[in-house]
Amino acid sequence: MILEVAFHPQIVHTSxxxxxxxxxxxxxxxxxxxxxxxxxxxxxxxxxxxxxxKESKSKAAEGSSDKASTGFETMLGKLVVDQGxxxxxxxxxxxTELLATRSEGExxxxxxxxxxxxxxxxxxxxxxxxxxxxxxxQSKIPGYKIIKKLGAGAMATVILAQQKSLDRLVAIKILxxxxxxxxxxxxxxxxxxxxAAKLNHPNIVHAYEVGQAGDNHYFVMExxxxxxxxxxxVEEKRLGEDEAIDIMLQSALALQHAHDCGFVHRDIKPKNxxxxxxxxxxxxxxxxxxxxxxxxxxxxxxxRAYGTxxxxxxxxxxxxxxxxxxxxxxxxxxxxxxxxxxxxxxxxKTPSEVMKGHLRKPLTLPDEFNTSLxxxxxxxxxxxxxxxxxxRYQCAADLVEDLRLVQQGEQPHFAKDDLDLSSLxxxxxxxxxxxxxANNPPRxxxxxxxxxxxxVPMIISIVINVILLIVLVALNA
Length: 477
Description:
With 477 residues, the chain is an alpha+beta fold.
C-alpha cells in the first residue's frame, strides 16, 4: 500500500505491515468464495413420482434454485454460514421456506428469504456476490489451472497455479479489481513484470508472463516454496552471524546483477527476501524498481520517497532524483541489522519519526545489542548504513568482496576501522613499541598515554639542565 505521510518533503511509503508482496505473501487467509467456487451441485429435477420438487441434503445445505447455474446462488448458503451471518439451523429453515414458496408456483431466491428475515442485508449480499464473481474471474486465466490462494497484500492477490503447457507450479499475482481502473496502478503492475523479465539470476524470482484476462491483470512468476527472512526473524528473534552472512551474500549478488542491468530495487527489506527450503535467497517484489535511464519517471517522482520506512535510505526520504544502487545497499544493511539484532535500526511512533532517524540520528552499533558479532561483520553493517553516499559502499561488488572476507574469518577490505593517529604519534617515540595496524587497534589506556607524554619533557628538561651546568662551569673556569 502506498500512503501519503505528512512530512516534508512529501513522503510516500509502502506498508504491507510490511508484508512482502511476491511469492508467497503471508499465511493464506481462507476466502470463502475461493474455497468453494469449484464446487457444484447437480439439479436432480422433478421426481418420477411427483412433479413437486423434493428437498435433498445438498439443496438444504446450499439453497439451490433454478438460478443455481449462475454459481453464486449455488454457493450462497455456504458463503453466509462461513461468514457467520447465519447458523446451519437457520439456513435449513430458510431453505425449507424457499422450497415451500416454489412448490406453490411462486418465484423466489435464497437472497430474498435472507433479507426478509434480516439474516443479512442486501449490501452484505452484494458484497459477497462481488467477491465471489472476482474470485471466479481470477480462476479463468488461459493456460493455467488455479490450485489455491496463497495470500493477499494491499496491492495484489497471489494464487498458486499449475502451468498446463509445462506442467509446473507457478505463482500468479493478480491486481485487485479496485485498482484495475487506475492507470497508475496498472502501469506500476506491468512495470514490475517487465523489470523482472529483464533479470536472469538464481537469486531473483523469475518472471514468466504478464498479461490481461478479462478484467484481470496478472503477472506469472516462479513459485518459491519456503518463507521470508522476516519469517525467520520472527521465528528466531535474531539470526546467527554465519546464517546472516550467507543471506547477505546471496542478496548482494542478486543486487549486483540488477544494478549491472541498470535497475534499482528501492524496497529491499526482510519481507522481500524469500528463502527456499534449500536455503537459497530469492529477491522478490520489483514493484518499485526503476531503471537508471528512466529520467522521466525520476523527475515525476522527485520530492516523493518510495520505500518502507524501517529500511528506506536517506536519499530516498529526501526524494532525490538520482537514486542509485547505493540505496539498495542501505536497505540491505537495515535488513541485516534487523536480522542480527532482532530490531530495526530506527524506531518511532510514526513513519515520519522513523524516517527522521535515518536522516539525523546516530546509529546504535549492532554489537551493543549482540555482543557475539565479530568486529569485521559489524563494520560491514555500519558501512552499509552510512547516511552519506560517499561514505557507504560504492557498489554491490565491493560489499560482496567484504562479505566473502568476513565469511573466511578475515578483515573486510572496504569497511576499515579508523586509526587513532594521535596515539600512533606518541607510541613512535617509544623504541620498543610496534606501530599499530588497522586490525590491531592501538591501546587507549589513559595511564599509559600520560606516562609516555610526561617522559619526553622530562628528558628534555634534564638535557637542558646538564647543558646549563656545563656552561656555568666553563664560565667559572
